[in-house]
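Trying the structure run again after the queue cleared.
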Amino acid sequence: MKTNQPLLESFDLGAITLKNRVVMAPMTRSRADNPEAAPTDLHVKYYTQRAGAGLIITEGSQVSKRAVGYIHTAGIHSKAQTEGWKKVVDAVHEKDGKIFIQLWHVGRMSHPDFHNGDKPLAPSAVNPNAKSYTPEGFKDTVEPKAMSLEEIEETQQEFVNAAKNAKEAGFDGIEIHSSNGYLFHQFFNKKANLRDDQYGGNMENRVRFFFETLDKVKEVWSENRIGVRLNPSLNGTFGIEATADTIPTFDHIIERLNNYDLAYLHLSEPFTDVSDIEFLETEIAKRYRPRYKGNLMINAGFTQETGNAVIEEGNADLVAFGKLFISNPDLPQRFALNAPMAEWDQDTFYTQGPKGYTDYPAYASEKQEA
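Done. Tokens:
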């Protein structure tokens, strides 16, 4: 294994400097099991254990009650939630860590059980035919409510308010979740967005909601403290069905993002099978590195070896790790030591309590116990 690793180099990211290029990816963990849907002391411990990351991106945090679609997810729209996140941020900063919060609205990937019986909001009344993780277990999604122009404007204001709360909590920046079949992604997609007004139809209209929201949020945060997450190759997951227009739409979005001085663009390599869909890309970093002029973050299935390689090849600046960070809270240190990786327990990804959350030991502790 190489001793000089690109992953372990420092990096200037917008307004902040990262101590390495190892990013903790945003991951839903369903531990906010309290009436306020607020982060707890368990969240403080979980994120602080992983403060060795160059950057932590929190789990998706809903911007309003209407934005939720999974049980026990910590929001960022109330005072209690903001105060809970502030404890997390302060603890991470005490460990010399940097942390962004991911702002999230699931759109139609929800269920009336979360909304007092009301239908979830979406660009159009198209059922994603997926599953929503409700307090009573997984349930089939329903036909959502097509958003009115007033509801679109209200939702944009919810992102602004959440961004303000994130600043009050002391975060180093924010990431707008525009990926994985959630609300913004639904607007991008021609099978999910059947609107015939200024937010539907042609490509320019389908991306309008996203760019209008971004422009409003940048009035709260400077552009170089805002990240954007996209998943250009998603198909057949989270209710999204790719079309021949999918990659051209993301080309358009990403080229327009060059007009902004973002902290980073966060892209996912395919985590669904796209081999039988000729118009989807199988190597996202290679496609968009020449197209995007800012800082590029890539994720989905990277290892120490492939993470170092994608940076060394010039196809990304930062690599986000998900499952490896769950079971290896000291992941950058393990990379530095070329230490073995601990295995994660998938059965505890979305359960409650410390098991499978804060009980994975650091490598130094493992050695002492051995």
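The first helix runs from residue 41 to 49. Worth checking whether this holds up in the mutant runs.
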